[in-house]
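ZP: hey, is the pyridoxal-5'-phosphate complex queued? I don't see it on the tracker
AM: it wasn't, my bad. submitting now with these inputs:
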Amino acid sequence: MTLMGDVNTFINGDYTTVEKAYLHIEDRGMLFGDGIYEFARCYVDGIPFQMEEHLQRLKNSAKAIDLELPYTGPEIKDIVGELLEKCGAKQAGIYIQATRGLNMPRTHHFPRVVKPSFFIIVRELEPEPPEFMVDGVKAILLPDQRWTRCDIKSLNLLPNILAKEKAVREGAYEAIFYRDFGVTEGSSSSVFAVFDGRIYTTPAGEWILPGVTSHTVVQLASRAGYSVHFEFIPREKLYKADELFITSSRLDIVPVSTLYDTPIGSGKPGPLTRALKEAFQAFARGQA
Ligand SMILES: Cc1ncc(COP(=O)(O)O)c(C=O)c1O
């Protein structure tokens, strides 16, 4: 377990405790949400899972906002390794954030000299609630009010957090976004639906974050012989899915058993979702 006082944070060159880690209030991350982040996790013995994919996405996000990361991929991996060792977290969550740094006084345009802020926090994760795989979770559907570069893992998460809060207030676990042309993704997850034994998920592009977990799920499903289709599912059709599930690095696969109060399929986690969950866990534990 990560305890108060454990060295679990790296910030702008220093290893410290999360309680002692501070950024200036005129950091552009604070002023404008001018930054990007990543979240990865460990399944076994403090070994980061799919770190290369997460680092690649971090680099892509940084490039997309014209931000030069202060550390290379191998350096970030070393820092994460050091933090995991220092705090002893096993099933750890790894949060990485980079911003465009201090901007004093505040200007909308980039400061003439950019010194990015960079930090990583490593923490033991709470285990997945066991009832998720017994009962599934409830989701709600909300219009996607985000911008058109959802492929960037930007710090600007207001639409996502407002949607999640709405879900929580309705007793749901996730809010699934839709646009005119169909479902995009969850407020912090990718979305999959099953119709007649076929798996459907949103095509990659600027409307969604390219999920590291969803990519693995697609590979595992294809390897197991399921056909996977990349299509925007009309939101009304989602209610008629045989199975529905969401994926993220935090909780890999979570079955969605009701949309508002409408049961999906049998209203319990379906067979394909359960099989994929098992395959994912075996993969994550074997190949972390
Ligand atoms: C908007 C959004 N989509 C999808 C995902 C899932 O991505 P990953 O599987 O890489 O964690 C996340 C995860 O945080 C997210 O915030």
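AM: back. The domain at 7-124 is CATH 3.30.470.10 (D-amino Acid Aminotransferase; Chain A, domain 1).
ZP: great, adding it to the tracker
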